[in-house]
Design a protein that fits this description.
The complex is a heterodimer of chains A (321) and B (107). Chain A has a domain of 220 residues: Alpha-Beta Complex (2-enoyl-CoA Hydratase, Chain A, domain 1). Chain A has 14 helices and seven strands. The longest helix of chain A has 25 residues. Chain A is globular and about 50 Å long. Chain B has 107 residues and is of the alpha+beta class. Chain B has a single domain, classed as Ribosomal Protein S5, domain 2 (2-Layer Sandwich), CATH 3.30.230. The chains are: A alpha/beta (321), B alpha+beta (107).
Chain lengths: 321, 107
């Protein structure tokens, strides 16, 4: 396999394949894939149902290095069955996360206290619609396994969610994405629970018009999530930009990194509920009402602004913690 | 709606083999395929092809497309594994070319 690391740094994160993202996020030449296409571990369920197979089952997992950090990478491929998690790719994901935790425990045994510049990192690049319905129970189990591991990661393994590929992070993957310490996105990132089409199908077009793309993006898109504080860093659309953001944060003490967590303690739950309460109080009908509440006088222009202008002028929800 | 499995073996006249040990290209999205080329020294001058496809009834087209590609490029000494989700012949040929390029070309 030939991939040129230097070229990948300037490549669009949005357009890159899962393998390119995984390869380009860690230091040059350090990525080692687990269960790659040559191992041909395909989904046994899709085979029975007559659905197309893929040798890596739509996920790329492996380990690499960022500076001195052993870095465990999970990268989902949204073009294969919507990136949805099933038994095989779910197991690949959760076992890679488990390896990160085991690495931390082993290092702790060796060093006593794991040094900040050597602690293992975990990076997950989301591109998934949630659970693969063909193997739903197995998929759901894998989701809960990942959530549990993320809970155990607290104060041990820094955990980065990257969101900026074609599908985004939807369904149960939306939960998993938000359980990280740091959420990084580009302008194409989308995070949600129920996708637009499903909301329209279940509650009706008056509730959510799935054909209104502007509505979708200002409700679930990264810019809105950035203003509301769900996305911690909004960056430019290159693999290198995502990598640099992680490199900047990697050496910080665990306490500083986990300051941006969104879930995982009663205090954070309260903080999240404050936003819900506020939306009800000001009778927000649209994300724009909330943007305005947080001090943006030009909510209509925000989605259209060029990236640099947006970042320099936007006002965000202040975090209580 | 079962998957169709096809197996072929072709021997091109002007046999060449891949530079790298293996090469992988493509994602099995709708209308696309993935190609995995793996060098196999025991296949002297032949290419073994294994295709899994969702489409029924195009066995002859597959045979023609792949055999012509192998005859033209001389690709041999490899196991070719293809997963297909209803790709057209043009896409198949393009992905095969990319797989060879990803594997460092032919020698």
């Amino acid at each position: 396999m030939r991939m040129i690391w230097e070229d990948l740094q300037d490549k669009s994160f949005y357009q890159a394949t899962a393998r390119e993202r995984a390869f380009g996020l860690v230091d040059k030449g350090t990525f080692k894939e687990f269960l790659g296409p040559r191992d041909k571990m395909v989904s046994p369920h899709l085979l029975v149902l007559g659905e197309a197979l893929e040798f890596d089952d739509g996920i790329v997992v492996g380990v690499g290095k960022i500076k001195k950090h052993p870095t465990f990478v999970v990268s989902q491929e949204g073009k294969y069955v919507g990136g949805a998690l099933g038994e095989v790719n779910g197991a690949k994901m959760s076992y890679t996360l488990r390896l990160a935790l085991e690495t931390y425990e082993k290092m702790k045994e060796k060093y006593g206290e794991v040094p900040d510049e050597k602690k293992p990192l975990c990076i997950v690049s989301y591109d998934s619609g949630g659970v693969r319905l063909h193997e739903a129970n197995a998929g759901l189990l894998m989701h809960s396994e990942c959530m549990e591991l993320f809970y155990e990661f607290q104060n041990k393994v820094p955990n980065f969610s990257l969101c900026g590929s074609t599908i985004g992070a939807y369904g149960a993957q939306g939960f998993v994405c938000m359980s990280a310490d740091v959420v990084i996105a580009n302008d194409y990132g989308r995070i949600g629970l129920t996708g637009p089409d499903v909301i329209q199908q279940e509650v009706g077009k008056d509730e959510f018009d799935a054909s209104d793309r502007a509505l979708i993006w200002r409700t679930m898109g990264a810019r809105s999530k950035y203003i509301l504080g769900d996305v911690d860093y909004l960056i430019k659309d290159t693999i290198g930009a995502f990598r640099n953001q992680i490199v900047d944060l990697a050496d910080l003490p665990m306490k500083k990194i986990s300051r941006s967590r969104h879930l995982g303690s009663p205090k954070l739950v309260e903080e999240n509920l404050e936003v819900v309460k506020l939306a009800a109080e000001i009778k927000a009908n649209d994300s724009k009402d909330l943007w305005k509440y947080y001090g943006n006088d030009n909510p209509d222009e925000l989605p259209e602004l060029p990236y640099d202008k947006f970042i320099s002028t936007v006002k965000r929800r202040p975090r209580a913690i | 709606m079962a998957l169709t499995e096809l197996n072929f073996e072709f021997k091109p006249k002007d046999a060449k083999t891949l530079v790298d040990d293996w090469s992988h290209t493509g994602i099995v999205s709708s209308g696309d395929i993935e190609v995995l080329l793996e060098k196999n020294d025991s296949l002297k001058g032949a290419a073994k092809v294994h295709i899994i496809t969702t489409v029924v009834g195009f066995d002859n087209v597959w045979e023609t497309v792949i055999s012509r590609f192998i005859e033209r490029t001389g690709l041999s000494g490899v196991n070719i594994s293809i997963n297909d989700n209803a790709a057209t012949p043009a896409v198949v040929i393009r992905r095969m070319q990319q797989a060879i390029a990803n594997g460092g070309g032919l020698q």
